[in-house]
Known about the structure:
Blueprint: H1 2-31, H2 33-59, E1 64-65, E2 67-71, H3 73-76, E3 83-86, E4 96-99, E5 117-120, E6 126-135, E7 152-157, E8 164-171
Parallel strand pairs: 1-5, 2-3, 4-7
Antiparallel strand pairs: 3-4, 5-6, 6-8, 7-8
Amino acid sequence: MARKKRGGIVLGALGGLLIVGGGALLVGVLLQPQLVEKVYGDTKTKVQDTVASVQQDVFDELPTVTVGATGGMAEVDRCDGTFTIMTSYEGEGIPETAAAHNNCKGDVLLGWEEGQQVHIEGRDEVYEVVEIRYTSKIWNSTEELVGLQGDIALQSCFYGEDRMKFVGLEPVHDA
């Protein structure tokens, strides 16, 4: 009988802890939604980076992204897991640039650093991050992208921040 009582106490304490945690999360979402989004995004990005590192080290698999339609925000907003080639980023000295919302698989690039190698689905080459640029999500212009190195660039936004990340990619050429 004592074992049953201890189990009930433990389950009751765990239930209480979950209720308090849920309440704290609700208060955070209501009072500081951008902070909660940022913490969530940072945590998700770190987990994704760890998984990608294990896949690369153990299974010799590189991260893979898919470039889909050409268009604008309507195509990005479809949130189909692909990067949309953005006509609004076209300009002299700017590589073809494809964007995806962070919560639609665009966040895969948020943890990348220069030297990261990736596959682009449907292309034979392995690509490498050769340059990274950060811009504001508001009041930015394509002028900030002029001279970005790479044959193609990928873009996504940070969670809970007024920042976007652009990564310039070039095919890796065997030595």
